[in-house]
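Why do we care about 3D structure at all? Because function follows from shape, and shape follows, mostly, from sequence. That is the central idea of this module. The next example makes it concrete: a single protein chain, its amino acid sequence, and then its structure expressed as C-alpha cells.
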Amino acid sequence: MSVNTIKKYFILCGVVLVLLFSADYSNARTDFSVSDSQLSFEDTKRPKVKPKKKKVRRKHHVVKVVEPQKPVQEEVIDAFSDSLAADALALLGDTLANDTLPWPESLRTRLDTIIMKSRTVKTSQFAVMIYDLTADSLLYAVNEKQTLRPASTMKLLTAISALDRLGGSYQFQTFLKHTGTVVDSTRTLKGNVYVVGGMDPRFNRDDLIAFVESLKKIGVDTIEGNLCADRSFKEKDLLGEGWCWDDDNPVLSPLVYSRKDQMMEKLMAEMEGQGIVLKGEVIEEKAPFLATDICSRAHSIDQILSRMMKESDNLYAESMFYHLAASFNKPARASTAKAFEQNLIRRMGFNPSNYRLADGSGLSLYNYVTAELEVAFLRYAYENSTIYNQLIPSLPLAAYDGTLAKRLKGTKAQGCIRAKTGTLACVSSLAGYAKAANGHVLAFSIMNQGVLRAQNAKDFQDLICVAMCK
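And the structure:
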C-alpha cells in the first residue's frame, strides 16, 4: 500500500469519527433542550393552575376556622359525663350493665367509673368519703384527708355541735324589761325600758307588737326614762372572721330585725303608732340584774335549725354559732364557739389543730376541713338519736325542698338523699345522708374546690348520689 493510499484511509476514518461525534452532540443537545422545554412549560402553566389551587387549598384553610370549636366539643363531652340528663344516666347504666359484683363492690365500681370519666376532678381538687352507718364500715374514700373549704356544709358542724351542747328544747329568747315604777294615775313609767337582745333571727313584727302590747298591759302610756338597747349577748363584731367585703353578709347583731340591726328603730315606730310616748332617748345600756321582766319572745332551736339548713341561711347559722358560745359565757365570742367544736372534734378522736374553723355559716374563706371530718360529725349525730332525730328533718330532701328542691329529680336518688349543700366562688360541696337500694343508711361528704363552673361540680356530686342509691 502506497503512502498516499494510507493517508487517504486515515483522512476517511477521521471524517467518519467527526460525523459520528457531531450526531451524538446534536442528540444530546436535543435531549437537554426538551428538558429545558418541560421545565419552562411547567413554569408557564403555573399561573393557569393557581385558580385551581386556590379553589381547593384555600378552602381547606377556611375549614380550619372550625378547629377552635374542638375545645367546645370536648367541653360538651366532659360536661355530658358529669350531667344528670337522661342520656348521661343511660350511658352510665350501659357502662355498668354487665356489672355482676355484689354490693358494695358494685357501688365502688360505679364510683370509680364516675371519677375516671369526669373532667371536673381532673381540673380541680376534690374529696369523697362514704361510710356505711348500718354496717359500721367505710365504703369509699378518695382524698378524704385533704383540707378543703367546706362552704355551707360548715353548717353541719355548727348544727351538730349546738344540738350536742344546747339540747333539743333550747329557746332563742329576746326580753323586754324595765326599771323604776309605774304611776297608775298617769300611766307613766318613771324608769327605763330595756330590750335585751338574744340574737334571734326569727324575731319579727308580731314580736314587736307583743312588746308594745305588754307595755300597755302594765299601764304604760308614757316613759319618762330612756329606751335602752342591751347588746351584751355577744361581742361587738358585726362581721365574721374571713368574710369577703363584697358578699351578702348578715349583720351579727343581738338585736337583729328583718336581717338588719334595726330593732330599736322599729320598736320605737310601733310604740308611737300605739300612742306610747318616750320622753327620754334611745340609748345603748345593759339592763341591771334586778330589772323587772315585762315580756319575752322566743323561738325553738328546731325553728332556727330548719331554715338554717334547708335554705342555707347564714344569719341563722351564725345565731346558732353564738348561742353555742353563750351557753358558756356572755358576751358570746366566736372563739368560744370554736372551742366547743374543737372539743367535740377531739372527742371524736381527731386533732383539732389539723383543721381551721372560723365561723358558723361557712362564709369565711378561712374555714378548712376534710371530707373525713364531715363524715365523722355525721356519724356522731347518727349515733346520738336525740341529735339525729332533730337534724334529719332539717336537711334538704333531694328533689323536694330546700336547696335540693331542683336537684336529682327523676333519679334513683330522689327522696333518698338528705344533705347540706355548700357554694362559694369556685367551691361546691355536698354532705349528708343517703339511703341505699339495700336499705342501708350512708353518711357521705363530697367536696369540690377550684371549680370555675359550679354546675359541673353539682353534676359530679349528683352522679355520686345516684350511684349510692342505685
